[in-house]
Write a structure and sequence with these properties.
alpha/beta, Rossmann fold, five-stranded parallel beta sheet, two-stranded antiparallel ribbon
């Protein structure tokens, strides 16, 4: 799914060569990593992390494109399982109680058929031996695409789009919010702001990829 080459019989989704060479961030080993710094002064989180660096035209972009636009949910699940194993060994993320994928608006969900963040979150929850929660947070506004917006416009576009349906199961929990790519962090920030009203909550953030600026 990353390079287009045929897989050997013992390989699945991504070939061994790509798995070895894809640009890993190792952010989960360092609390003050570049993804975490994206949220400094903006949102109160424990830490942010991502599996890979995102570069235009790179193999990580190809993977995410196949996941989002060609319905290959198995990519998200596979990468989630892979990363969950690593996060379980992270000093900062080994006590995560709940994994929450960034929700899509129901109109977009209907159009796309699935939520790519949910695919990744399900793989993470499985290997981190924790639960995935897809009902507590919902998106009450359909936003226009973020791709060509400036940092401020992205923030303005998403600042109040998330609402909490029921926070009783999230009180005093360490919650991991999950998306496919962290670019400016505006969508994540909006979700964090909605969740921070929950008593005693601790919030961390994880993505498949981090787009460095």
């Amino acid at each position: 799914m990353a390079c287009g080459n045929s897989l050997f019989h013992n390989e699945e989704i991504i070939c061994t060569n790509c798995l070895f060479h894809l640009p890993k961030t190792n952010f989960h080993l360092d609390k003050d990593n570049p993804a975490s710094k994206t949220f400094w002064g903006r949102a109160n989180i424990e830490m942010a992390t991502a599996l890979y660096f995102y570069r235009k035209g790179g193999k990580v972009q190809t993977l995410i494109h196949h996941l989002k636009y060609h319905g290959h949910e198995e990519i998200g699940v596979f990468l989630g399982q892979l990363y969950g194993g690593q996060l379980k060994g992270s000093t900062y993320l080994n006590d995560v109680d709940v994994v929450i994928p960034i929700p899509l608006h129901k109109a977009k969900l209907k159009k796309r058929g699935f939520n790519q963040a949910e695919s990744f979150a399900s793989g993470l929850a499985e290997t981190m031996k924790t639960t995935m929660d897809t009902t507590s947070v919902f998106r009450n506004t359909e936003t226009s695409t973020q791709t060509k917006k400036s940092r401020y416009k992205r923030w303005e576009n998403v600042s109040e789009i998330f609402k909490i349906k029921d926070n009783s199961g999230l009180e005093n929990k360490h919650v991991l919010i999950v998306d496919d790519v962290i670019t400016t962090g505006a969508t994540m920030e909006a979700c964090i702001n909605a969740l921070k009203t929950v008593d005693g909550i601790r919030i961390s953030v994880a993505a498949i990829a981090f787009a460095s600026h």
